[in-house]
Amino acid sequence: MRRSGVADLPLHSGRAPKWLFERMVELADVITEFIVIEYGEDEFIRRISDPFWFQAFSCVLGFDWHSSGTTTTTTGALKVALKPEKHGIAVCGGKGKTALKTPEEIKKLPMDIETEELIRVSRMTAKVDNTCLQDGYSLYHHTIFITENKWAVVQQGMNEKHARRYHWLSEKLESFVKTPHSGISAERIEERVLDMTSNENESLRKASLDAIREFPSIVREVKRLKMPFHHELREIDLSERSLKVLERLYELQPSSYEEIVEFRGAGPKTIRALALVSSLIYGEEISWRDPAKYSYAHGGKDGTPYPVDKRNMKRSAEILRRAIEECKLGKKERILAIKRLSDFMRSLEHD
Prior knowledge:
Layout: E1 5-10, H1 18-39, H2 41-48, H3 51-60, H4 69-81, H5 84-87, E2 90-95, H6 97-100, H7 102-107, H8 115-132, E3 133-134, E4 138-146, E5 151-158, E6 162-169, E7 194-195, H9 202-213, H10 215-224, H11 231-234, H12 240-252, H13 257-262, H14 268-282, H15 310-328, H16 333-350
Antiparallel strand pairs: 1-6, 2-4, 3-7, 4-5, 5-6
């Protein structure tokens, strides 16, 4: 199971019609409950953190196979459908201004969770993908999925023509600034990306930390440098605002690069300037490699690959719901039959 990843999607205008969204909510409810009964709520969190499983799930719900709206509509349907008391899973956040309400939503959850730590998770995942990973996509959507044991984050950035989705999972996450994304997939690879979380830039993270600790002398050194006509040097932004942020960081004397990223006011320009200055002073090479390396069941909103089959969609939800109800009564035959069918179809794929 992939721990996290990235997917590129073309931007589509419009929104899901009300009738489709209501059916998506219904189907999301029963599919999630089915998974929770069979595997537990933590397994659903693992799956939602996989960009390919997420894409297939959205297609099963009836959304477009490659639309940027997949992310916002699917997570929106899950937010309406999933209840902590029923599924053991909560969904907070959303698109635009709704994303800013994530901390308040986390505080109101009726769950045995570490509220302040999850608020920090929400803040750091968004900041890392908007600041440390400078790929030209600005975040506009942020959703966090929470159980009492694990969390997953699904968020999306946008440039002029495409959207890019970022997945996170708490399981095995060592650091917010050290390869937090794995199993990355994207149709579009950008030519020039500053990824301060990559292993290739580990020495640059250390150099940035050293530069902050020696900030006054570093500034004097930069001012004495005779700048050659290299493209990279023109991108150094030691604006008055960036200098003030770096001065405050110097006073803090951070003990890790993660503290630099978490510092209030340290945005993309500050992180980029610090990386470039550190590279100049300490001679560290910068890696500019982009870290970014679907199953139709009910059709798609725009009729791709075919129009949504409303009757079949409703029938699927009814079959799953009946199986869940029988399971609760101690009758697991229907669930086992569905599982055997799934195993049979999987065996055909491998033959």
